[in-house]
Amino acid sequence: MPTAKKPVAHPDLAEVLFTGQQIKRRVRSLAREIKTVYGEGEFTIISLINGAVLFTADLMREIDNPVRLDCIRVSSYGNKTKSIGAPQIVHSLTLDIRKRHVLLIDDILDTGKTLQLVSRLIRDLDPASLRTCVLLDKKGRREVPIEADFVGFEIPDKFVIGYGLDFAERYRNLPCIGVLRPDRQSTDGWSAG
Known about the structure:
By secondary structure, the chain is an alpha/beta fold. The chain has helices spanning 20-38, 53-61, 113-123, and strands spanning 13-18, 43-49, 67-75, 88-91, 101-109, 129-137, 150-154, 160-161, 177-180. Helices cover 20% and strands 28% of the residues. The strands form 2 sheets. The protein has a 6-stranded mixed β-sheet with strand order 4-3-2-5-6-7, with helices on both faces. A 3-stranded antiparallel β-sheet has the order 1-9-8.
């Protein structure tokens, strides 16, 4: 008996990997895992934006600890489907994290270069502890030895969009996570604006 395919939520998706409902359930269980580690204590969430903004917001709503929030903006893809080399920090922290417990949140861990770069930056600021949480882990693309402490889903080496993940700043608003159709993995023919 053939398995039923998941419905495609957007015409530019080749397939849906995780529905909005599956993401919501996993975010709740990740929050419970995080709560187990931090107990009732305060910690600082540092979100890598723009990609992790939706994930961070939903995860924070599931955590009742006292939390502080700061964001770091890193550029590593541009308008490409593969990392363009060394990630660049575009905007850094504003909060003092010295002797504070820190949870670094990113949307996807693939090559590991971004998470490694930002983790080093944070460690240089002398936090009490540093843990990492990623929504997606694409182990097949790893180029540096790094693993996240908390992982939402492991995914195959496919270019994914939705729920904060983008291609050329598009598709972040999709409620699901899906694979971008190969014929849409180019900005050729897109009008400006």
